[in-house]
Structure to design on (322 residues):
């Protein structure tokens, strides 16, 4: 019989303690809430953004630096280009990073909603072709890449006479990815992609698959394998071989190049694409602030270090002695 009063006492005591704690913390809770509201500026607050997953390494590096310097949290959703744009159009995010500009239909949709979206180019990227390290043939021209992607050439010996690798297994990252769209729009152009192509989920999975299958050919964003300071990148590049590509003619080691920054800059590497921030931030708050950071000198240096070509070339100030 003595237990119920004891339990009752403990419950009342806990309730009293909670009341005291609440009264003590209430002013801080109010201040915190007010600070959160006041902090929704270009350099503080919280946002979600949608990012083409092929740009994940670069954008994550930019987020890390931006957050370290500001009272801000930028939560990225790394997804396909199509889903990133869908999220932006559904007003689920105010910022999307994509490998293309808005179409006329997409732009008109925003206008109908009384929005004025901005399209800001932040970088030049490239599509890298990767093969198994044991593949002796890693030099190719654009026409033969097109033949492979359209299904006109299905065997390695149709590209390289004498090759014993058999079928060409073409591997993409995702059926809705910007790389598939680029292959269709910019490489194949007047011909449809072959129905025999394969898609996984992520760029990293493409690298893993190619590293384990000698007859495969993978297409990935160069962003994934171009930062020499990233240990993950260094590990990935040891697993595959990056092909050299030339525009036309007989490819050789003198006219075919890999997707290095210099060859992206000169246009010698054929498969180049622009990277954009699509911004729908009418209030000019944190999404706009993060965009400004990406095109600032510091943001563009992150892009440069990641192996891409900055949209605005960073400038070094050098003091010259008299």
């Amino acid at each position: 019989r003595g237990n119920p009063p004891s339990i009752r006492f403990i419950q009342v005591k806990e309730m009293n303690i909670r009341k005291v704690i609440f009264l003590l913390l209430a002013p801080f809770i109010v201040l915190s809430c007010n600070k959160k509201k006041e902090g929704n500026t270009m350099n503080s607050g919280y946002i979600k953004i949608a990012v083409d997953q092929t740009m994940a390494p670069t954008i994550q590096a930019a987020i890390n630096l931006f957050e370290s310097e500001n009272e801000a949290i930028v939560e990225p959703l790394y997804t396909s280009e199509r889903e990133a744009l869908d999220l932006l159009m559904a007003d689920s995010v105010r910022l999307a990073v994509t490998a293309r500009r808005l179409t006329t239909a997409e732009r008109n949709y925003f206008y109908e909603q009384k929005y004025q979206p901005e399209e800001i180019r932040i970088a030049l990227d490239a599509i890298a072709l990767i093969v198994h390290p044991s593949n002796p043939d890693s030099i190719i021209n654009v026409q033969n890449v097109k033949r492979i992607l359209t299904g006109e050439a299905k065997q390695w010996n149709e590209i390289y006479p004498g090759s014993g690798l058999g079928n060409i297994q073409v591997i993409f990252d995702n059926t809705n990815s910007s790389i598939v769209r680029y292959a269709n729009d910019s490489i194949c152009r007047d011909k449809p992609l072959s129905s025999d192509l394969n898609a996984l989920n992520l760029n990293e999975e493409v690298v893993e698959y190619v590293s384990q299958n000698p007859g495969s050919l993978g297409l990935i964003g160069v962003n994934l394998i171009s930062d020499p300071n990233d240990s993950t990148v260094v590990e990935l590049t040891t697993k595959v071989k990056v092909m050299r590509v030339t525009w036309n003619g007989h490819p050789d080691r003198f006219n075919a190049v890999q997707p290095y920054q210099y060859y992206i800059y000169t246009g010698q590497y054929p498969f180049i694409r622009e990277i954009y921030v699509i911004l729908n931030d009418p209030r000019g708050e944190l999404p706009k602030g993060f965009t400004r950071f990406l095109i600032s000198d510091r943001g563009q240096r992150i892009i440069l270090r990641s192996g891409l070509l900055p949209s605005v070339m960073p400038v070094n100030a050098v003091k010259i002695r008299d």
